[in-house]
Fold this sequence. Notes:
single chain; 8 helices; disordered N terminus
Amino acid sequence: MLLQVDTTVADQEAITVLELLLKGGYMMIPIFLLWIIAIYIFIQRLLVIKKSSQTPENFKDQIREKVSKGDIEGARVLCAQTNTPVARMIEKGVERIGSPLKNIEVSIENIGKIEVYRLEKNLGMLATISGAAPMIGFLGTVTGMIQAFIAIAQEEGAVSPKLLSSGIYEAMITTAAGLFVGILAYLGYNYLITRVQKLIHSMEYNSIDFIDLLQEPTK
Length: 219
């Protein structure tokens, strides 16, 4: 009996929140769309970054061993089998072995720039949503207040509290919704940027280590 009462109360609260959001007016539509886009970008980028960070721990040691033994083809095959940004950068360096060291460095840097672009793809959109959603919410506030004042101006006699609050509803709800989406998008953007910066640091470290390997004296 008690469980049934709690379930009924929970359903009532859910319905109340939904009705509250619907009272936000048409400005809730773009805020809701930005919310869906932000969720999609965050999850999609998180999966890409997580997959790109999974370079095997012994990858660098295996490359070092094969290059030191002159097994260039083996090193290239190992890189091709490891689908990560670090492996693709090293693979380009392995393919350029025999060229001047400066050319190898430039080739690795070029691949690195392409990989960084892939990692940061759509993150700018997430940053834009973090700023645009609150502004759309504030716009909803302005339009809601204008509608409220128009309704008050057209009312004859004493203004009822219900009439005044109808415009305030839209104003407050769109502002809260815009800030909610904006704050979460901002937190998600900074989290992903931190993960990307950590991965870029790993890419730079491995490329420098590979260049140092090529400069070691032949045993």
